Amino acid sequence: MSDSEPATTQSDAVPDPDVDVSPSELIEQAVAWLEAEPDDDIRRELTTLVDAARTDNADALADLADRFSGRLQFGTAGLRAAVAAGPMRMNRLVVRQAAAGLGRWLLDQEATGAMERAAARGVVVACDARRKSDVFALDTCRVLAALGIRSMLHPGLTPTPVLAWSITGLDAAAGVVVTASHNPPADNGYKVFLETGAQIVTPIDVDISEQIGAVDPLDVPLAAEDDHLIQRLDLSWQEAYVAAVPQVRLRPDVPGVPVAYTAMHGVGAETIEMAFAAAGFDPPIPVVEQHQPDGTFPTVSFPNPEEPGAMDLLLETAASSGAAIALANDPDADRLGAAIPQADGSWRRLSGDEIGWLFADHILTNTSGDDRLVVTTLVSSSLLGRIAEAHGVHSEETFTGFKWIGKLALERAEVGQRFVFGYEQALGYLVADRPLDKDGITAAVLMAEIAACAAADGVTLQGRLDALADRFGHYVTAELSVRIPPSEGATWVAAIEADPPAEVGGVAVVGVESYPEANLVRLKLDGGTRLQVRPSGTEPKVKLYGEAVGMEPARLESLLESLAATR
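Request: output the structure for the sequence above.
Response:
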């Protein structure tokens, strides 16, 4: 599942179209799974499903086919799916298979000389508060230990940025965090990081996936829970991460302002409070109902700050508390949402691009050097490039998915470019040089500083955005998703490339750009509007992105709808 797009249940559970399994074979596979399944609750639900399938119940057979016709594939951020039985769901057998594949890949890296001392350096492991996260994390350690690979397990519940940050500090060969990030409550996931603290990239994800495919999930050796290769870490790495947070502040002389905050039932609250204190800010004003970790997400059906309604309680808290800004982490705290007050007393949720513009303006205004580099993704706003140009610094666009931003930051460092900021429109921001992944905690601290600077200067955050619009033009962005079978999405993109439309919504198409590595096509319309199309790599849908300058949002949305209608 791509961490750069809103998730849906079973986001990585894409059935293999070449797998055609008979009902009897499905039942046979399910029974074999039952014999290996270690958890009673999963055994009970699968037993019920098998019993129904044996009566030729069509729904039960369809459910079995959905679970057993293939296996979860590594998306741009590892594995994600609903917690349930079968190779197309998240469960302990699938996690053990994934851990074994990762371990085998690490051993191969050591054997070929591509990575020194991989087994001894080991893997850092952490988890969030979702269903079975703790046992998934421990099973990962036990599988690695059985392969002779050291593991280091973070205590309790750990934000993803803390896990990623600790990888380089521990000089580990890799990192794993058990989390489904902002997916619906029924899901869990498995995210893998490289030794750099960045997420896995192609072709490494393909190599690991091949290793996983060679492992029988029903027969994965396990070491004992107290094996000497399993090291239990203490809280010192969380404390070290927090101690480094003040480095992101660029105006430490400016006093803080009231900040409303929600952890969205995730694991960010404790670390955020520590981070704010270390940075010299008062604790944020919490949404009490969402402050403690709770994997059932009782107050929000879709714990993603991008989703309509997800930040409603936060906006109520912000309005009643006199906050200057409202901030939201997603459940594993690697994303940041924000809302700002308006002149009429209402609150407006910012788009991911608007947050990115505020960060870019603040960072580039308060740093120096023509070696600076800012990075965004192809589907994010092009305004970042305009801001960078005005400051005389380097800017780059890369593929969708934050792993590509981390990769580009490393590559450009080799030619003397200094990464200072990266973002993607799906609320992912990197405002520090470590970890090389999106970090909603350090981003929250710097956004609190941006709000404080605006207050000290006697302007509003809306005023900051209006000033950027006055300087560069009023940039408008929009998105649209069209649900179609995965194979049809790629076909549609190829058809647009081969025979692009002459016009969209009455506006002439004046240029076409293809990005085959991202499976994306960009149409340039008369007047500067750009429309982009790409199929989701993990969901049965195509995503369309629009950007224009000086256009009414409704008009841009209608252009996307017109493009969608050409399919």
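The first strand starts at residue 79 and ends at 82.
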